[in-house]
Write a structure and sequence with these properties.
Helix content is about 15%, strand content about 30%. It is α+β, with helices and mostly antiparallel strands. The chain is globular, with a radius of gyration of 25 Å.
Length: about 700
């Protein structure tokens, strides 16, 4: 899934199935204690002792959620802290601003995003508190708090994606209203006064199922926004409207459709105005690749810099995402991924000519690029060799880290670098993976022909993508003697609409075929042990994991984290944002009810034979916990080896450090029992996973 609020984690293809290459070679790294080659000890794969314990991997680890510049160019960012139960804290240059009893997170669309915004000209920060969903303003000088929205109980009024309307002393934002008696909440664009009177927000746009990205022209007379309707998702079919505002701030005209629209296979996103009032936006119109467009005076969209094979945007799972910034009437700061390059590019784009000028940045993946008042840039950056960090340019233009997500630093001879593999799948298709071979500074395989076990990872979404950014979770496995394949199966983003739509009506088919083909390809190449092929994934990746175990005989074990087991249950028991997603992925329900049953792992347990591990949060509103319980109960009934662990207080995706560690160590312990190797480096007092029916 996308990380933070600064754009999608996406990479492109471009390497043949016979070709392997590392993404980048590390330079001299902090933590390298010796460049001399050590004599390694032979030990069975999977049982290598590793310094990368779950405690080391997660200790002090933060989820950095993007950055913005405050007063005087002071850097500000969001920290998600697993050691505080996943609480999100707004930080200004190292100083916490968020009170200890608050959590900066919105529940709009449940996935959230766009929960905070800095207003440096007013000396304010805005944020939504997770528990109450009240919108607050906070003084950057005194840290005093003032609630802005009505005192509604049970978090029934939610806010995100803020646009300052300075002339009228208000913000325009996405509002999600759960106060009615309808089956679904009502989404709209609303104006919230900044005076602190807590008045009922004023509706600016309503009637569509969903809204995003409100943006005002510089003179405050026009508002542009994105909307879409069921059953479409925001990467499928969307519309960009422009509406004129009167002096009272209310619409003075009917909204005008300027890009996309119902019935068009287009998903425009991220509108922004130039100072002179021209509209810029991203669209996949024409080529199927998200490129930058300008709305011309005649009302037609013009591709500023046509680049088929490149994506300037990503799937808008979260609100508040921006992958470009309009700097003046003829200059844009933008970022894009390329189908033939594994890393992203940062560049200045000249609107009048379409010329690109690349901006050096020492990160292969990055997002949330911001521009300070003096022109310096800041970003959330990551690479293949070190954890994600908040960084900004100094006066000379060099990039320096101002906050690291982790203090973890690996020696060069321990770090497993991703290798890009384009490999064959079913029906003449090709798919893409990042392959990580086992690597440990002190241990190696026994040299008797034994091959390493493989862990195939399937990303969530499923309309999302994985990248080759440094992941301590992957290094946890490779340092113990596992090979890892992180798969961008058909339907992943970053490869254009045609590849993205491979899952249209085919979820549970194409993703399953591509995940299985990745494992088979590596086994056929003699790179991994064909008898020890494991698969895991969370959310939609958990569904692909379960479906692979049900509908293929490739894998010998699997682990699902808050994964979908019943498609029918998901169709009838999930939140508004995704309530019609399955119409696209599977088919309309109940018209295609039999297809839902045919592709549901829980309906096909007679086809299971491989042991299964299940981890689930008890407060998950996206994949209800009863699905994991039902899956486990039927495994018990069918005598299939299985284990289930539930976590109090966890939702869709685990945020508490102790639970993240338990999942990592628990999955490793699960495979050690199933594959019959000795687990190494489990924490003191570790309670082994209880696998029912293991003897079967």
């Amino acid at each position: 899934r996308p990380t933070g609020e600064g754009g999608a984690k996406q990479r492109g293809p471009g390497v043949g199935p016979e070709e392997l290459r590392p993404l980048e070679e590390p330079s001299v790294m902090k933590g390298v204690t010796s460049m001399m080659r050590k004599t390694k000890v032979s030990k069975p794969y999977g049982s290598w002792p590793s310094k990368l314990t779950s405690e080391v991997v997660t200790a002090g680890a933060l989820r950095l959620g993007g950055m913005q510049f405050g007063v005087g160019g002071r850097p500000m960012w969001l920290e998600g802290r697993p050691q505080e139960g996943g609480r999100n804290v707004l930080v200004a240059d190292g100083t916490d601003l968020t009170p200890k009893d608050m959590n900066v997170r919105t529940r709009v669309h449940e996935y959230g995003g766009g929960a905070w915004k800095v207003l440096p000209d007013l000396g304010l920060a805005l944020f939504t508190d997770f528990k109450t969903q009240f919108l607050y303003k906070q003084s950057l000088a005194t840290t005093d708090l003032t609630p802005l929205t009505p005192e509604v109980e049970n978090a029934e009024l939610r806010f995100a994606d803020f646009e300052l309307d300075a002339t009228r002393n208000r913000v325009i934002c996405v509002m999600e209203d759960h106060r009615g008696d309808g089956k679904e909440p009502v989404n709209s664009l609303a104006a919230v006064d900044l005076d602190g009177g807590r008045a009922e927000p004023v509706t600016i746009a309503a009637g569509s199922d969903f809204y995003a990205s409100p943006v005002l022209s510089r003179d405050g007379t026009k508002l542009a926004y994105v909307s879409w309707e069921h059953p479409a998702m925001p990467w499928d079919i969307t519309s960009i409207f422009v509406v004129e505002l009167g002096e009272d701030g209310l619409p003075s005209s009917e909204p005008k459709l300027v890009a996309g629209g119902p019935g068009k296979e287009e998903a425009p996103q991220q509108p922004q105005f130039c100072p002179d009032g021209r509209l810029i936006y991203i669209s996949d119109e024409g080529t199927g690749w998200w490129n930058l467009f300008e709305l011309e005076a005649e009302g037609r969209g013009r591709s500023i810099c046509p680049m088929p094979g490149c994506e300037f945007g990503g799937p808008p799972w979260m609100l508040g995402t921006r992958t470009y910034e309009v700097l003046d009437d003829d200059k844009i700061l933008c970022s894009y991924s390329s189908a033939d390059k594994p890393t992203k590019t940062l560049a200045y784009l000249k609107i009048s000519t379409g010329a690109l000028e690349e901006v050096p940045i020492p990160y292969g993946s990055f997002g949330g690029v911001q521009v300070a008042p003096d022109g310096r840039l800041g970003a959330l950056g990551g690479s293949t060799t070190k954890p994600v960090e908040i960084a900004m340019q100094n006066e000379s233009g060099d990039w320096t880290a101002v906050k690291k997500s982790s203090s973890l630093s690996l020696e060069e001879d321990t770090l497993s670098l991703a290798q890009v593999i384009k490999y064959p799948s079913k029906n003449g298709r090709h798919s893409y993976m990042f392959f990580y071979p086992p690597k440990n500074a002190e241990f190696e395989g026994p040299g008797d022909g034994e091959l390493p076990p493989l862990l195939v990872k399937t990303h969530g979404g499923p309309t999302a993508a994985t990248s080759a950014s440094f992941s301590p979770m992957i290094q946890y496995w490779t340092s113990r003697g596992f090979a890892v394949a992180d798969v961008n199966y058909g339907g992943s983003t970053g490869y254009g609409r045609e590849y993205r739509e491979l899952l249209k009506g085919a979820w549970g088919i194409v993703d399953v075929e591509d995940a299985a083909a990745a494992a088979q390809y590596l086994a056929d190449q003699g790179m991994v042990d064909r008898n020890r092929l494991a698969i895991d994934g969370g959310s939609a990746g958990g569904y692909t994991t379960l479906a692979c175990l049900a509908f293929t005989d490739v894998f010998t074990a699997g682990c699902s984290l808050y994964g979908v087991a019943s498609l029918e249950a998901l169709a009838g028991d999930t939140h508004k944002f995704e309530s019609r997603y399955l119409d696209y992925l599977v088919g309309p329900y109940p018209e295609t009810k039999q297809i839902y049953k045919d592709r549901a792992p829980i309906e096909n347990l007679e086809k299971f034979s491989a042991p299964l591990m299940l981890f689930q949060g008890l407060e998950d509103k996206i994949v209800p916990p009863n699905q994991a319980q039902m899956m486990f109960d039927i495994c018990l009934e069918k005598k299939i080896p299985a284990a289930l662990e539930m976590f109090e207080g966890e939702q869709h995706g685990f945020r508490k450090e102790e639970n993240i560690r338990r999942c990592l160590d628990g999955e490793y312990n699960f495979y050690s029992q199933v594959f019959g190797f000795e687990a190494a480096g489990l924490p003191e007092g570790f309670v082994p996973v209880n696998i029912s029916n293991l003897n079967n």
